[in-house]
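Title: Prediction job returns without error message
Component: structure pipeline
Severity: low
Priority: P3
Assignee: unassigned

Description:
Job completed but the reporter wants confirmation the result is attached to the right record. Sequence as submitted:
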Amino acid sequence: MVNSDVITGVRQAVQDFVAPGIQELRGEIKALDTRITALEKISEARFSEIHSKLDARFSEVTSKFSEVSSKMDSRFSEINSKVDARFSEVNSKLDAILNLHDLQIRISKLESQRTA
């Protein structure tokens, strides 16, 4: 019976001292779990807010780049048209100069034939 009394005593000591400590720790763990869950929700909300702000900002930047790109395309088309017009003008003048040169050569030949 001594062994049985020792086992009963140890069992009673565990129930009296250790079990309340375990229960207290369980309560603290639940409180910590609740706090962690609340912090997770706050963090998720903040990250979501930051994500939304960044998305809006990137959309704004993308829109501005598109606007600038469109203006540049328009301006390059305008410049290209002007360059094409100038090129045509210069080409026409060169053709006229070549025609005059050909005429001068013909006139020179005719004059040399006349005098000969």
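Comment from assignee: result matches the submitted record. Helices lie at 2-115.
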